[in-house]
Amino acid sequence: PAVTKACVRQAVTGFSLVIAELILSMALAVAMVPSDAFVDWTFLDSARLAGPPAAVYALRSLLKQSAYRQCDGVTFNIVNQTKVVFCAVSAWVLLGEGQTMQQCAALFCAIMAG
User: Fold this and answer.
1) CA distance 58 to 87
2) DSSP secondary-structure letter at 42?
3) Which strand (E) or helix (H) includes residue 37?
4) Residues near 103 by Cβ (< 8 Å), separated by ≥ 6?
5) Residues 101, 51, 59, CA angle at the centre, nearest 5°?
6) How far is Cα 29 from Cα 47, in angstroms, rounded to an integer?
7) pLDDT of 62-97, one tens digit each?
8) Measured distance CA(83)–CA(60) in Å, rounded
9) Which of 36, 54, 79, 81 lies at 20 to 30 Å from 111 by C-alpha?
10) Residue 111 to residues 14, 45, 81, 84: CA-CA distances in angstroms?
11) CA atoms of 106 and 95, how far apart (whole Å)
């Protein structure tokens, strides 16, 4: 939050920040993936598999931008630590992918450490 407050004017909307973040993330991901990884790639398969988690990630980013403008730094950082648990619960609800006991233990440790 401190860097964003120092570098981004208050007039910039959270939506535009999230769009810029997502575009940068996609560009970096495509640049880092080997070119032969796209041999059997289809847009529809990618949208079906990655679409729900990507939508949840985008929603969370919008909510995060709103929260950082409304909360003090300590509160924001504590709430921001819930992102791993949020993603795990979203994967379970949207994709039906449950967590293993090891993953649940790791999530519990992450919650306690945050």
Assistant:
1) 11
2) -
3) none
4) 88
5) 85
6) 15
7) 888 777 778 787 777 777 777 777 777 877 887 787
8) 8
9) 54
10) 27, 33, 8, 9
11) 20
Tokens representing 13 are 């909307």
DSSP code of 34? -
d(CA 43, CA 84): 27
Question: Are 75 and 64 in contact, with CB atoms under 8 Å apart?
Answer: no
* DSSP character string of 70-102: HS-HHHHHHHHTTHHHHHHHHHHHHH--PPPHH
* pTM for this predicted structure: 0.55
